[in-house]
Amino acid sequence: VFAQLRHSIGVIGRYPRAKLALVAMIISQASMVAVMTMTPLHMKDHGHADLSAFVIAFHIVGMYGFAPLIGRFADKQGRIRTLVAAGAILAAGTVVAVLAGYHPTLIFAGLFLLGVGWNFGLIGGSALLTESVPAVERVATQGSADLLMSLCGGTAGFSSGFIKTAWGYHWLANGATIAAGVLLALAFYAQRLGPSAAPAAG
């Protein structure tokens, strides 16, 4: 497993757009998991525990409910524009979560946007990754990227509790906003560079 992971990371490292794709997948997953995990506790702290299940349900609708439409967007507008949208929507979701204070209505909106932004990032990143590496490497590379994404998401979920306890939910969401901003900047830069040559099939 580790040998394959090292090999796949080496393959990704040879293609700038593959690196962008992996970064997009990791940022989308880590930002979403960190903020989502602590939102019910944040709401409980301020007397809205009865609404937290509905907030998470609405968030899950944002994560998966628009996947067919987002897939079409990625096909028509391109993978890089999809990642630009991912960074913008993730940033919007985390900013709304911060500005919401303790108003559950705005937290509904923030977590919904967070779910939608995650979907843009995952679909755009996965599609860009498989298109950016040689065909013979695609399956192994996608599997390794999914593993790295899951590990980073798990780490974000585990550490989010410590961050919330030490500095508060707002700083956790601010950190996710910064990460989303990094993704947005990288995607804009890639968009300005224009299309790159497709890798060889073998």
Task: Describe the structure in your own words.
The protein has 202 residues and is mainly alpha-helical. It is built from 8 helices and no strands. It has helices at residues 2-13, 16-45, 49-64, 67-77, 79-99, 104-132, 138-167, 169-193. The protein is globular.
Topology, please?
Blueprint: H1 2-13, H2 16-45, H3 49-64, H4 67-77, H5 79-99, H6 104-132, H7 138-167, H8 169-193
Helix pairs in contact: 1-7, 2-3, 2-5, 2-6, 2-7, 2-8, 3-6, 4-5, 4-6, 5-6, 5-8, 6-7, 7-8
Short synopsis of the structure:
With 202 residues, this protein is mainly alpha-helical. The protein has eight helices and no strands.
Order of helices and strands: HHHHHHHH
Low-confidence stretches: none
- How many DSSP helices? 8
Distance between the termini: 22 Å
| Mass-distribution shape | globular
Largest sheet: none
**Class per helix and strand makeup:** mainly alpha
Helix content: over 70%
How many strand elements?
0
* Strand percent estimate: under 5%
Rg is: 17 Å
Whole-number average pLDDT? Answer: 92
Tags for this entry?
about 200 residues; 8 helices; about 85% helix
